[in-house]
Design brief:
By secondary structure, the protein is mainly beta. It is built from three helices and 22 strands. The strands form five sheets. Strands 1-15-14-13-12 form a five-stranded antiparallel sheet. A hairpin with a 4-residue loop joins strand 7 and strand 8. The chain is globular and about 55 Å long. The N terminus is likely disordered.
Length: about 375
C-alpha cells in the first residue's frame, strides 16, 4: 500500500484478465539470464516437480468490492478452506482506541507500531469476526493453518520501526507468529496465546504463507539486506527444524514495465508466485492497464519461468494489488486449486474508505 514496500526490487508476474502479448524478445533474454544466474542464488531444491498456474489464462472474480472491518486498504489475505472462511489483514484505523489502550493513535502511529486488524469473513464477503494484533508488523502476507480445533493464523510479529526516506516510519516484523483466531481478542507480540518462531540471527522482515495442499510454509525474509524465499515442511518447522526444502533469492526484474512495489506471494507445489504493482496514479500505474505483475518462480532452480501483466479488476477505482493466497474451493478435491490475488479500491471518488476484491486463476499446465 502506498509506497511502503518500495524498498524491494522484484519481478512481478501478471495475472491478466485480458489477453496479454507474449513476452518480448528482450524480456525472454532476461529470463534466460535469470535462469543462468539463479544457480548462484539458490540452494538446490528438493521439491517434487508439479504443475504450475498458467498466467496467460483469464482471471475470474471471486469477490468484488466487499467491506472489511476498518477503512484502510487490504494488506493480505488467506483461506481456511475446510471451514470456508477468508481472513484479511489491514493496518488499524487512526483514532480507534482498542481495549487496554489508554489513548488513541494516528494512522501513522499505527503503521509505525505495526498494529493490525484481522477480519474473518465467509466466502461471500460477510464479516464473521475481528481481532487486533498490536506490535506485529505490516501484514505483507499471512497464512492459515486449518486444524480440527480452529483456524490458526501465521503472521509476522515483533515489530521493528523503520525510518522511511520521507521521514515517516513503517513497522516490519522480524519473527513469525502462530495463534488461533479468537473473535474480539487483542493480542500483543508477547501474548501467551502466541507462539513465536525465529530464523537465524540477523534475519528480519519475515512474512509467510501456507501451501494448504502440501502443508508447507513459505517464508520471505531479508538476509544481509537481500530478500530470499524459503520453503519448509510445516510440521518440521513447528518442531524446530530450520532446514528448508528450497531457498531462493528474489529474482531480478525481468520485463519492461515492471514495478518495484512488492505486494505479496503464494506457494503451490514446486512453484512460488510473486505479486507486485501500484495503485492507479502512482509509480506510473494508469487505468486501465496498471502495472501489476505476477512472477512464477521454480522452487528447485530459483529461475523465473513466467511473468505476465494482469488486468484483473481493471475497472476498480484506485485498484492496488494486495496479497496472494491459494484457495481450495472444494476440500474433497484438493487438486482443483486457485491462485488468488487481492486488490484494494475506493468506495467512490468522494469516499476513499477502502474496499477489497479477489480474483483468481485456476488453469494448471
Amino acid at each position: 500500500m502506498l509506497d511502503r514496500r518500495r524498498i524491494l526490487r522484484m519481478a512481478g508476474a501478471a495475472i491478466g484478465a485480458a489477453a496479454v502479448p507474449a513476452v518480448a524478445v528482450g524480456a525472454s533474454e532476461a529470463i534466460a539470464r535469470s535462469r543462468d544466474t539463479a544457480q548462484d542464488n539458490v540452494s538446490p531444491g528438493s521439491v517434487t516437480a508439479g504443475k504450475r498456474f498458467d498466467l496467460t489464462a483469464g482471471s475470474k472474480e471471486l469477490l468484488r468490492e466487499f467491506q472489511l472491518s476498518g477503512t484502510r486498504v487490504l494488506q493480505s489475505f488467506a483461506f481456511d478452506n475446510t471451514r470456508g472462511h477468508l481472513f484479511t489483514v489491514q493496518l488499524v484505523d487512526g483514532g480507534l482506541q482498542l481495549p487496554g489502550e489508554t489513548q488513541t493513535y494516528s494512522g501513522a502511529d499505527r503503521e509505525a507500531n505495526g498494529d493490525l486488524c484481522l477480519t474473518r469473513l465467509d466466502t461471500s464477503g460477510r464479516i464473521l469476526g475481528t481481532m487486533y494484533l498490536r506490535g506485529f508488523g505490516h501484514g505483507v502476507q499471512i497464512g492459515v493453518e486449518t486444524t480440527s480445533s480452529g483456524s490458526y493464523l501465521w503472521t509476522e510479529t515483533h515489530n521493528v520501526r523503520t525510518l522511511n526516506s520521507d521521514g515517516t516510519y513503517t513497522g516490519w516484523g522480524d519473527r513469525l507468529a502462530r495463534f488461533e483466531f479468537a473473535n474480539g481478542t487483542v493480542l500483543t507480540a508477547d501474548s501467551p496465546s502466541l507462539t513465536q518462531y525465529t530464523l537465524e540471527s540477523g534475519v528480519d522482515r519475515t512474512t509467510c504463507g501456507i501451501d494448504p495442499v502440501n502443508n508447507r510454509l513459505a517464508v520471505r525474509c531479508r538476509v544481509s539486506g537481500t530478500f530470499r524465499y524459503r520453503l519448509y515442511d510445516l510440521a518440521a518447522f513447528k518442531s524446530g527444524n530450520r532446514t528448508p526444502l528450497a531457498d531462493v533469492a528474489q529474482p531480478a526484474d525481468l520485463q519492461p514495465g515492471y514495478t518495484d512495489v512488492f505486494q505479496g506471494f503464494a506457494s503451490y507445489g514446486s512453484y512460488l508466485y510473486l505479486l507486485a504493482g501500484s495503485a492507479y496514479g502512482s509509480n506510473g500505474s494508469t487505468s486501465p492497464d496498471g502495472n501489476t505483475f505476477i512472477t512464477t518462480v521454480d522452487w528447485n532452480t530459483g529461475a523465473a519461468v513466467e511473468q505476465k501483466l494482469t488486468k484483473a479488476g481493471y475497472t476498480l477505482l484506485y485498484r492496488e494489488p494486495e496479497g496472494m493466497a491459494i484457495q481450495i474451493p472444494d476440500p474433497s478435491n484438493p487438486q482443483a486449486v486457485r491462485l488468488c490475488s487481492g486488490f484494494a479500491s475506493y468506495t467512490s471518488s468522494t469516499d476513499t474508505s477502502k474496499l477489497a476484491s479477489i480474483y483468481y486463476k485456476d488453469v494448471l499446465v
